[in-house]
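tool_call: predict_structure(chain=1)
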Amino acid sequence: MLNDESRNSSSFFAMSDSETNSDCHNHLIPHKAPLKLRDVYFSHGRWYGKNGDIEREKYKFPIDEVRGNQLGYAAMKLTSSTCKEEKTRLDIFHKFFLVARNNNLFSAPLDAESPLRVLDIGTGTGIWAIELSEKYPQMHVQGLDINMIQPEMIPRTMEPPKLHDVEGSWDTLSLDWDFIHVRTLFGSIQCWTTLYKKIFMHLKPDTGFVEQAEIDWAPQCNDNSLPPNSALHQWASRLLGAMDLYGRPMRVHPGQTRRWLALAGFTDINETVVRVCYSPWSEDENAKEAGRWFNAGLSEGLMALSLSAMVTILGMSEEEVEVLCDKVRQEICTLSYHAYCRIEKARTFSCYPRFKLWFEHVT
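tool_result:
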């Protein structure tokens, strides 16, 4: 059994848009993501998913970012290049996860040399699935998302990303996946018990693994260097409170997640907690590097994370949100504030035959 090992991350930004180096062309193929103007709407200076055949508006975070009042221009020029800034932010967080997890794309004890079938739920820009396909070309990898913002070029060994609402029917998805990957979907899902049951039913019985990593946004500080009335505390409280009211919580409750997984049929649930600094204040070199990337991603993404939730749910004005985010940005760039948050990672596998879960469900 092999765990994923470190890789050269120099191409980390290369997969965030459609531009690729000529050296990469020999293993990439074109993929035209079906993102159309009818699938998006413009609000708060960002593009958001719009309801249609897929219920996209339940996702409270932008899929694009447009600087300034560029609605007319953007409406005529909606291509992958207009998504570049928001995509880059998402890919920065991918790099952060790699550093925080010692450059591992996964930690499940998979036989990485086998032709495993891997499903990436909520694939976003597709960067995790793309890097997995590049490193393990023998694997069959596919990503799912309600917004098609993936790059136009993907590895030849990778299945094209699939437009799919994971909260809807899974009847069109195949069964017997060896590994299902979930990352930062808290805030996007209404009923996790239902989703975990779908995942259980679509994993290979007895051997299939699911792995999930989520950010616990609540700030922690062991030495009281971060003021208790800090803007960071206020921001996290308002964001988490807004998403609670919305019915798609972002809060991380490990005990609750374990119960949801157990209700779906999973056992042997393995949990890992990784401490993540808001800035590179730690003396540990790996924690310092992870802090740099987390700081970069959060500094870029504060407004994207906050605007829709705080304006539409809490009734704050855009100006109030911007002022709060500016204060948070200043605090997380202050090295004397030794604040951190946590990554909660759960890994488990489907240890029961599929028919047993079905029998227990119907009775």
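agent: The radius of gyration is 20 Å. Proceeding to next step.
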